[in-house]
């Protein structure tokens, strides 16, 4: 019979373990030998003024003034709710369970007591695993509570961004760390401006928006005058990231289904896959394995990050974009459609536990376009995603070499986009580039050269260790490779120099101001959280200044128009 409870997070497993030892030695003898204090014994009498009461008091028991012991009754919860002390069918079926999910602050108050009470009353522990999740704190590191006015009403978040973004954001925050800070802001109901919540304004019944100068009420509104004002919800910018992810998934799915018109069910010709198909299948197999393993380990934040990266970066930003050319080719279209439907199908299954509403909606639309989906043996899609089996893809599809090949391509593509943004080159302007790299990198990138034009509107001139770089250009290092873009004729040098000089002055001014604030020791000591934010801002400003200086140096070498 199991008598040990295992904690499931690295943080709490160092602090929490309940192990009940059974010994023939009596408790009294053991306590005397170890010098331990005797436990307090509670006796519960069912009826008021029972004749037993005087006899119990003669034994030295003192009547408890607080008749309700919350944690004592809570300790009974795993079995008392199932009909105990009677041996009910529910008790036999549901006790013991497997996993308890809880916060660390009630481990001794509740978790340990449930274990001890279960062993005493039933003879079995109520669960053998405890997942101890982090606590969500506000931006000042304080526990969220109604009394402090620093909490977030989930209904406000749902009304603003939806239920799925709320769920995804919470899962993304469920790390194995002790605490998670969630800075919050009031949103003005008049102009939708975000107003940072402070210790001073979070308990005010009404607040004047600094942007539109109109008042709105908070949860502390009590007077008729304050309650008549529109209420300002309390939100966090972290939910915006989750909402953007939902929008990305929805738009990519919508695009995919527009390309599934005329879909004909059938097996994918796995013997003649394009390089991008082999890559996405490898990434999908790797993702399924990682997500399955992460869920088994209760590594929810890791699961959310893995799905975010695969869905946004691999599927939406690369694979869907690469497929566009094949949809225009009638002979290549059926294979591209089947691959697209198969990958989207698996993404929806993987995301469904975290984002049930949007994935179910997309699933219903997808059934109308591709009712039978699969890789080698297409099967009819289940009526509801809720009932669909968990995705499985053989590890044989995993190809570390092709994943490394595309990772290089993604880095090079990112370098081209960085140069465009840094030099203010419009996306519609075609650019010419070369990549200086070792021979192995060149061999990996050469089969993917065509995709630079599709995804970055760039023509790759040459790549390898002996390429000639443009005399007037911009470059970004990508590992052991250098991506060079010819800037000749792409920008107005004089106008760009003036713009960058102004930008340099602005950044230097911001740097000086923030450095002055951090030089004030009293300020840093009084407001450590704000000081830490300023340090982060300083690091970002220094990176911006370095980039601007590099652009100025490049432009100074270019001929004026």
Features:
4-stranded mixed β-sheet; single chain; alpha/beta; globular; 17 strands; 561 residues
Structure notes:
The protein is built from 21 helices and 17 strands. Helix 11 (238-258) runs parallel beside helix 13 (300-327) and helix 12 (275-296) runs parallel beside helix 14 (333-351). It has a 4-stranded mixed β-sheet. Strands 15-14-17-16 form a 4-stranded mixed β-sheet. It has a 3-stranded antiparallel β-sheet with strand order 8-7-11, with no helix packed on it. It is globular and about 105 Å long. The chain is α/β, with parallel strands linked by helices.
- Strand percentage: 5-15%
Q: What is the strand arrangement across the widest sheet?
A: 2-1-4-3
The general outline is: globular
Mean pLDDT: 86
Helical amount: 40-55%
Main sheet properties: 4 strands, mixed
Q: Total helix count? A: 21
Distance between the termini: 85 Å
Structural class: alpha/beta
How many β strands by DSSP? 17
Given as residue ranges, the uncertain stretches (5+ residues, pLDDT < 50) are: 10-23
What is the CA-atom radius of gyration, in angstroms? Answer: 31 Å
């Amino acid at each position: 019979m199991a008598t040990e409870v295992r904690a499931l997070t690295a943080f709490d497993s160092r602090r929490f373990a309940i192990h009940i030892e059974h010994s023939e030695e009596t408790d009294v003898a053991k306590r005397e030998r170890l010098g331990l204090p005797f436990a307090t014994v509670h006796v519960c009498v069912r009826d008021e003024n029972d004749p037993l009461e005087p006899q119990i008091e003669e034994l030295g028991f003192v009547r408890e003034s607080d008749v309700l012991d919350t944690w004592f009754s809570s300790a009974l919860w795993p079995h008392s709710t199932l009909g105990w002390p009677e041996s009910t069918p529910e008790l036999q079926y549901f006790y013991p369970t497997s996993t308890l999910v809880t916060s660390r602050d009630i481990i001794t108050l509740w978790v340990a007591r449930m274990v001890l009470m279960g062993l005493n009353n039933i003879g079995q522990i109520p669960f053998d695993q405890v997942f101890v999740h982090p606590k969500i704190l506000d931006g000042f590191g304080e526990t969220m509570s109604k009394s402090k006015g620093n909490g977030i009403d989930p209904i406000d978040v749902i009304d603003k961004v939806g239920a799925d973004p709320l769920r995804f954001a919470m899962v993304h925050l469920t790390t194995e760390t002790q605490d998670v800070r969630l800075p919050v802001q009031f949103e003005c109901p008049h102009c939708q401006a975000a107003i940072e919540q402070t210790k001073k304004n979070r308990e005010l019944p009404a607040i004047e928006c600094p942007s539109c100068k109109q008042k709105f009420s908070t949860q502390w509104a009590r007077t008729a005058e304050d309650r008549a004002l529109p209420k300002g919800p309390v939100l966090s910018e972290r939910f915006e990231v989750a909402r953007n992810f939902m929008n990305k998934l929805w738009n990519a799915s919508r695009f995919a289904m527009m390309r599934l018109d005329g879909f004909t069910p059938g097996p994918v010709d796995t013997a003649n896959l394009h390089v991008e198909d082999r890559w996405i299948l490898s990434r999908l197999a790797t993702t399924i394995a990682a997500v399955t393993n992460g869920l088994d380990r209760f590594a929810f934040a890791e699961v959310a990050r893995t799905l975010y990266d695969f869905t946004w970066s691999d599927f939406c930003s690369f694979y869907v974009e690469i497929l566009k050319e094949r949809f225009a080719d009638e002979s290549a279209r059926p294979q591209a459609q089947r691959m697209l439907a198969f990958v989207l199908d698996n993404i929806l299954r993987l995301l469904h536990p975290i984002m049930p509403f949007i994935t179910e909606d997309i699933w219903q639309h997808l059934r109308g376009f591709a009712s039978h989906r699969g890789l080698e043996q297409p099967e009819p899609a289940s009526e509801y995603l809720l009932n669909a089996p968990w995705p499985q893809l053989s590890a044989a599809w995993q190809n570390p070499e092709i994943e490394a090949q595309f990772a290089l391509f993604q880095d090079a593509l990112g370098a081209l986009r960085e140069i465009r943004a840094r030099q203010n080159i419009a996306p519609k302007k075609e650019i010419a580039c070369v990549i200086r790299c070792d021979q192995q990198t060149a061999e990996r990138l050469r089969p993917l050269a065509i995709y630079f034009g599709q995804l970055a509107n760039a023509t790759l001139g040459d790549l390898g260790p002996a390429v000639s770089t443009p005399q007037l250009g911009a470059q970004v290092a990508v590992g052991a490779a250098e991506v060079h873009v010819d800037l000749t004729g792409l920008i107005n040098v004089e106008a760009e120099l003036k713009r960058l000089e102004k930008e340099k002055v602005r950044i230097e001014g911001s740097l000086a101001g923030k450095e002055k604030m951090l030089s004030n020791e009293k300020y840093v000591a009084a407001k450590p959280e704000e000081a830490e934010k300023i340090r982060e801002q300083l690091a970002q400003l220094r990176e911006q200044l370095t980039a601007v200086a590099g652009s100025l140096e490049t432009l100074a070498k270019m001929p004026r128009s």
